[in-house]
Specification:
mainly beta, Immunoglobulin-like, L,D-transpeptidase catalytic domain-like, 3 domains, five-stranded mixed beta sheet, about 10% helix, elongated
C-alpha cells in the first residue's frame, strides 16, 4: 500500500517579526542603560586649536617660535614642526605639561615659516607666518676658509664682520667651537687691521698636532645691533692641526731657524728690518697668514715712500701691515751679519724656496732679540699670541 507523504507545516511569519522586534527593544534598552552613542564610532580626531607667538606677514624676527595648545581639552602636543620654504627646520622641544613647544633657534628675518602640530590624540593643525625683511644684513669672513684644511699650531679661528657688532654677547653665544681633544680656548673681541669688528678663538697654548677643530657659527636670526643689521645664514668651517713646527727668528744672530717637534731642522742666514725706526721688524709672535708666492711689493703701500718697487719671490705674509718672510737676493751682503731690510725677513732665493716648501699656514714665527719695534696689535695679522692668556680671556663678551 502506498504511503501518503504528510504535507510540510506552513511557517508562520508572525513569530519572526516578534523576535526581531524583541531584539531591537533589547538593544534599545541596553543602549539607554549604558549611555553609549554609536554616532562617535570612527569619528575623526578633534582638530586642536593652536596659538603661535608670531603672526602675519611682518612678524618679529630674532625671537624663538612658541606654539601652544589653546584649549585644555586639546590633549597634549606630540610633534611640532616649524620649517621654512626650503624645508629647513627649527629644532625645539615640548614642555613637561605637553601644552607648549618652543624653538631652540630664533626665527630668521625675511623668512616664511609653516607650523604643523599633532597631538597625542591624533589631532592635526597648521599655521603660517612670515618675518619682516631686514633693512641691513651683516655678513662675515671666516679664517681659515674651506680651501685650507691643514694648519700650523698657532692658527686661530677668526671672524671678521662686514658691519659693526654691538650685541657682542648675543653673537658670541651662537659661536660653537668643538675640538677632538677638548682643547681649552677662548674668544676675544678685537679690531681688525682695517677697523672692522673681529672675534678670534685661540687655544691657551699652541694646538697639539692632529687636533680636529670645527666651528659652527649659528648666526641665522641673530641681530648684531645698531648699524650692524641681521645675520640671515649660518656659517661653518673646520681644520686639522698639522706638524708641530715653529720658525724662530733671532734678530741678534740674524738667523731664521725651523724647529719641528722641538728639534732644529735647519738654520738659515737672514737679514731683518733696520733697527731704530719704521723699517724695524715686528717682534713677538706672528703667524704665517698666507703663502703668496711671487708678488709686487711697493713701499708706498706700507708708508715708506718710494723706497722700493720689486717683484718678490717666495713671499710668506706675517702681518697685514706688510711684514713678510721672502727671498731678497739684492740684500745678500747682509745675510747673517746685519739687519738691513725694510721690515721683512729676507734670505737667499734657495733658502726662501726651501722654507716656503716646509712652512704651513698657521705656523708661528717667533721673533726675538734686540732692535724690533715692539709686538704687532692682535688685529694686525694673528697677533693674539702676544696677549697674556688672562688678558685674552677678558676680551670675551661673555666674561
Amino acid at each position: 500500500m502506498r504511503s501518503r507523504r504528510s504535507p510540510s507545516p506552513r511557517r508562520s511569519l508572525r513569530p519572526r517579526h516578534a523576535a526581531v522586534a524583541g531584539v531591537a527593544a533589547l538593544a534599545a534598552t541596553l543602549s539607554a542603560c549604558s549611555g553609549g552613542d554609536s554616532s562617535d564610532e570612527g569619528a575623526a580626531p578633534k582638530k586642536p586649536e593652536l596659538s603661535v607667538n608670531l603672526k602675519g606677514e611682518r612678524a618679529k624676527a630674532g625671537v624663538p617660535v612658541t606654539v601652544k595648545l589653546a584649549q585644555p581639552q586639546d590633549a597634549r602636543l606630540k610633534d611640532v614642526t616649524v620649517a621654512d620654504a626650503e624645508g629647513a627646520k627649527l629644532a625645539g622641544k615640548v614642555s613637561a605639561d605637553g601644552r607648549t613647544w618652543t624653538s631652540a633657534r630664533m626665527a630668521a628675518p625675511g623668512t616664511s615659516y609653516r607650523v604643523s602640530a599633532t597631538t597625542d590624540g591624533g589631532g592635526k593643525a597648521a599655521k603660517a607666518f612670515t618675518t619682516a625683511t631686514p633693512e641691513k644684513v651683516n655678513k662675515v669672513t671666516i679664517t681659515p676658509g674651506r680651501t685650507i684644511r691643514t694648519v700650523g699650531v698657532a692658527q686661530p679661528l677668526s671672524i671678521v664682520f662686514d658691519h659693526p657688532v654691538r650685541n657682542k654677547a648675543a653673537v658670541e653665544k651662537h659661536l660653537k667651537v668643538t675640538t677632538s681633544d677638548g682643547t681649552v680656548g677662548s674668544w676675544g673681541w678685537i679690531k681688525n687691521y682695517d677697523g672692522r669688528d673681529r672675534v678670534d678663538w685661540r687655544p691657551k697654548d699652541y694646538w697639539k698636532p692632529g687636533t680636529e677643530v670645527k666651528l659652527d657659527a649659528q648666526l641665522n636670526g641673530v641681530d648684531s645691533g645698531t648699524d650692524g643689521g641681521w645675520f640671515v645664514r649660518d656659517y661653518d668651517t673646520a681644520m686639522t692641526v698639522g706638524k708641530n713646527q715653529v720658525v724662530k727668528v733671532d734678530l741678534d744672530s740674524k738667523t731664521a731657524t725651523l724647529v719641528r717637534d722641538g728639534r732644529t731642522v735647519r738654520s738659515l742666514p737672514m737679514s731683518a728690518g733696520t733697527p731704530g725706526g719704521e723699517k724695524a721688524s715686528w717682534g713677538g709672535t706672528s703667524v704665517l697668514m698666507a703663502k703668496e708666492g711671487t708678488i709686487n711689493m711697493r713701499s708706498e703701500t706700507v708708508g715708506l715712500g718710494d723706497a722700493y718697487d720689486k717683484m718678490v719671490d717666495y713671499s710668506m705674509r706675517l702681518t697685514w701691515s706688510g711684514m713678510y718672510a721672502h727671498a731678497a737676493p739684492w740684500n745678500a751682503a747682509y745675510f747673517g751679519n746685519t739687519n738691513h731690510s725694510s721690515g721683512c725677513v729676507g734670505m737667499s732665493t734657495s733658502n726662501a724656496a726651501w722654507l716656503y716648501g716646509q712652512a704651513q699656514i698657521g705656523d708661528p714665527f717667533e721673533v726675538s732679540g734686540s732692535g724690533s719695534k715692539g709686538t704687532p696689535d692682535p688685529g694686525n695679522g694673528f697677533g693674539a699670541w702676544n696677549v697674556p692668556w688672562a688678558d685674552w680671556q677678558a676680551k670675551s663678551a661673555l666674561r
